[in-house]
C-alpha cells in the first residue's frame, strides 16, 4: 500500500520532448481522422456533460442524471431555478469543459504527476458513472474507464506518462473542433437547442457570440497547454 501511495504522491521524471510531440500527433490523428473521431468524440462528450454536472452541483442545483447518446450528443438534467446566474453558469460550462480539464491536466503533468492525474481521472469517472441514466452512457464511461484503469494499474511509468500526455493533448485539441462543429450545426439549421442558443434565450446575447466565447476559451487553453508541455519555451 505504501508503494501504491508513493506512486501517486511522487513526481515522475519528465518524458522526452519526442514523447510529448509524438502523443500530440497521435491525438491529432484521433481527432482529425473522421472514422476514428466518430468514436473518440465520446470522450469529449463525457468531459462536456461532466462539466455541466460539476457546475450544476457547485451552484446548488440538484443533479437528476446524465445521458450519453450514440451520436456523441448528451444531456445533463438538473433541477432548480430555470433562469439566473446558476443556470447560465451550467450552460457555460459544457463546451469549455474539455479544454479546461485538459488545461488542468497539462498543469498537473508539468509538475510531473502523471500517475496522480490518471487516478484522479478514474475517481472522476466513478463519480460520473453514478449519475449516468442510460445504457449507452453506462457503456461509454465503463469502456473509457477500463482503458484508463488498465494503463494506470498495469502500465509501466513510461507508458503511464505517455498515456496521460495523450489524454491531455486529446482534450486540448478536441475542444476547438467541438466548438467548430457546434457552429456548423447551427448554420445547417440544427442545434437550436444548443448551449449557445439556450444562453441567448437566457441573456439576450446572440448565440454566435457565445460560440465565440467557447472558441476563445478553447484556444487559450490550448496555447497555455502547449507552453506548459515544454514544446515551446514559456
TrEMBL record:
The chain crosses the membrane at residues 15-33, 85-107, 113-130, 137-156, 162-180, 201-228. Keywords: Membrane, Transmembrane, Transmembrane helix. InterPro entries: Peptidase_M50B-like. Coiled coil: none annotated. This is M50 family peptidase.
